[in-house]
Amino acid sequence: MLKYQKIAEQLFSFIKSNNLKQGDCLPSLNKLIQQYGASKTTVLKALDQLERDGFIYQVQGSGTFVRNIPDEHFINFNVSHGWTNDFTKTKMENSDVTVEKTLPTPLVASRLQCAIDTPVYKVQRLKKQDDKIFCLETSYYNANVVPFLNEDIAKASIFHHISDVYQINVGFSDKYFKVRRLTNFESDKLNLPQDSFGLAVHETFYTTAGDIFDFSENVYHHENATFYI
Amino acid sequence: MLKYQKIAEQLFSFIKSNNLKQGDCLPSLNKLIQQYGASKTTVLKALDQLERDGFIYQVQGSGTFVRNIPDEHFINFNVSHGWTNDFTKTKMENSDVTVEKTLPTPLVASRLQCAIDTPVYKVQRLKKQDDKIFCLETSYYNANVVPFLNEDIAKASIFHHISDVYQINVGFSDKYFKVRRLTNFESDKLNLPQDSFGLAVHETFYTTAGDIFDFSENVYHHENATFYI
C-alpha cells in the first residue's frame, strides 16, 4: 500500500471512530500534515482519494467536510481496493471458492489484452454478507503478472495479497454493467429461480502503472445487493 | 462553470479531436499551464476532475495518460455534469417533458432535507438516445434554491441552465441503485411489458458548497441502457 493510501485509510478510520456526520469538518491541511508527518502533496493525494471514493468533499477557501456515509449493507460500487471493508461490522465472506490455472477464452484474452496461450488463474467465488449471497464473481488473473494463486489466498482479499507479495497495486478499472437475465448456472449459484434478472458487471483492472492484470465478471442478486457510489 | 471545469472540458475536447487512445500521453503540466494561462492548482484540479471521470490516469514521475474511452452508446454512470454529452455524435433527446410546481412527498422531503411545505418543481422526462428510450427520469428541485423551471428549460440541460442563471454548480451526489421490478407506469413509459426488471437509481445532488438542490429517481430500460464507470 502506498503512503497516501495508508493516510486515506487512517483518515477514514478517524471519521468512523469519531462518528463524524455529513457536513462535519475535518482538521485543516496543516494539522493533517503535522499529524501524519507527511508532505503536503501526499496529504492532498489522500484527501483526493477519499473525495473520489465519496467520503468527503472539499470546498475552496472553506475546508474539507464529511459526506453522508451509507449504512454498511449498501455496496460501494466505486471502491475496488477493499480497505474500507476492514471497518464494517457486517460479516463479509467468500465461499464456494475455486481456483484453476487454465487458458483464456477469446473474450477473456481480449479483455486482459493477452495472447490466447497466456496462462490465467480463473477464480470463482460466492460473496456473502451476513450469510446472504449477494454476488457470484468470476475473475481471470494473467499468470505472467500474478505468478501464483490458490484457494486459501482467494478466500481472503486477493488484492491485499498481490499488493503485499508482488507490490501490484490497483490503479483504476474499466467497468461496464447492465441488467440482464441470468444463466441457469448463475441463478443456481445465487439461489434464485431460473430466468431471474440481475446486474452483470464486467471489470478490467489496471495497476497504478497502467498495466492490465485482472478481468472479472460479477453477477449480483437483485434482492440482496443495493449499491451506492 | 468554474475555470478548472472549463479547462477539463477543453482537455476532453483535445483528447477526442486528436483521437487519442488508451496509453497516449498528455502534454506535460508546464505545457498545460502555459497553454491555458492558468495556475498550477487550477490545471491540477482539471486533471483530477478528468481522472475522477475516468478519462485519464496519472502515473507518479511519469506523466498523464489517456484511458480507454468507451463507445458513445454506453452511459457514463459517474458523470452528472453533462458537458461530455456535447461531444457525442449520437442524438440525445428529452421527450414527454412535464414540469409541475408541487409539494414534496415525505420521501422526497427527506431526500431534499426540506420541510414538507417547501415548494418543489417535479420534472419528468423520457431520455432517448438515437430515438431509443433508455430512461424515465423523475426529478425534484427545491424551489427555494431553484426559483423557476419550465418545460422549455427542462427539454435541454437543467444543470447547464441553473449554472448559467443562478450560478448553482453541481459538486457531488449520493447515488443509490438496485435492480427491481418496474411499476406498471414505468413499464408503460419505457415501452416494456409489465413486470419487466430494470435498474432504479436514487440520486441526491449537492452544490459545490455542499447544499442539496435536487433529488432524482431514474429507472433504466434493461435492453437499451449499458453503463460504464
UniProtKB/TrEMBL annotation, chains A, B:
Tell me a GO biological process for this protein.
negative regulation of DNA-templated transcription
Q: Which residues form the signal peptide?
A: none
This protein's UniProt keywords: DNA-binding, Transcription, Transcription regulation
CDD domains named in the record: WHTH_GntR
Output the Gene Ontology terms for molecular function: DNA binding; DNA-binding transcription factor activity
Domain HTH gntR-type, first and last residues per copy: 1-69
Q: Which InterPro entries does this chain map to?
A: Bact_HTH_transcr_reg, Chorismate_lyase_/UTRA_dom_sf, Tscrpt_reg_HTH_GntR, UTRA, WH-like_DNA-bd_sf, WH_DNA-bd_sf
Please state what the protein is called.
Answer: GntR family transcriptional regulator, transcriptional regulator of bglA
